[in-house]
Amino acid sequence: MTSAPPPRLLVLRALGLGDLLAAVPALRGLRRGFPDHEIVLATPPSLRDAALATGAVDTILPATAPRRGVPALTGWYGAAPDIAVDLHGNGPESYAALAALRPRRVLAYACPSSDGLPPPRWEREDHERVRWCRLLRAYGIDADPDDVRLARPSCPSPAPDAVVVHPGAEAAARRWPVRRYTVVVQRLVAEGHRVVVTGGPAEEELTAAVARGAGLGPHDVLTGGLPFAELSALIADAGCVVSGDTGPAHLAVAHGTPSVTLFGPVAPRLWGPPPDDPRHTSLWYPGPPGDPHGTSADPSLLRIGADEVLAAALSHVGRRSTGREGSQPVKVNGRA
After folding, report:
1. What is the pTM of this model?
2. Which CATH architecture has domain 163-317?
3. How is 8-47 classified by DSSP, letter by letter?
């Protein structure tokens, strides 16, 4: 006699790699809270391997929409989800996309509770990891915002112990200038460190400009979007990761790899690494909130200088050769 399939729990988080990694604590809370459910994550197909690496997801429902919008969940098949969870936004669009599948229960910031009480309150000043754990706790599901670590993949790193510099980001607002990245790479190499430059799909021109300006060879440029396991191994075994507020920065936190993250439109208290973890340095100058998806570099991001980034990176990887004088004081969260 064939046993009945397990009930399914659908989670909507159809955004980028950094967004997925910020949701890992909530996904693991759901895994512990619903051990007998099949957990299906609606997310872009390019994030399949990353999602499965969390250990909290069983199946991927491919789902994408332009400009970080809410996708239509037309790929859902079979019976309605037993439970649907909105980790995409605060509605109403994302809630409506899930409700259209007629789940027995929806957990969302936009959803009134079954006893008629108001929905959980969306707090603008929540850190992203805290926000989704707080949503689950409002429904009686325990989740730990510090539960972010990923296991190292079994494949070898393409550049063990290298300083990984990732100059790209999905939006121009979070891209520090190429010429400043070039200066940092040049000086790290002069200090005796191997540096590799990484980039995602369609970032070949950007990575080539940094590498060319810094005098790196083609073997030190890993671009075009590495397969997730290879990228994960690279970050896990890196000496340090230098990047803007984007996926590799979150992956460095997930692996406990030292990192220097350059923030601009969004403060590190909202998206950054744990502030008390000495392995991670957040560089940021306070200013008016910006648009993280804007089309030009954020003014706060542009206040960060190359000397500050270099000093922060060297504080993590150590100095091995030339005995240069130290750089300017590092600004950590805007403070000297």
Report:
1. 0.91
2. 3-Layer(aba) Sandwich (3.40)
3. EEEEE--S-HHHHHHTHHHHHHHHHH-TTSEEEEEE-GGG
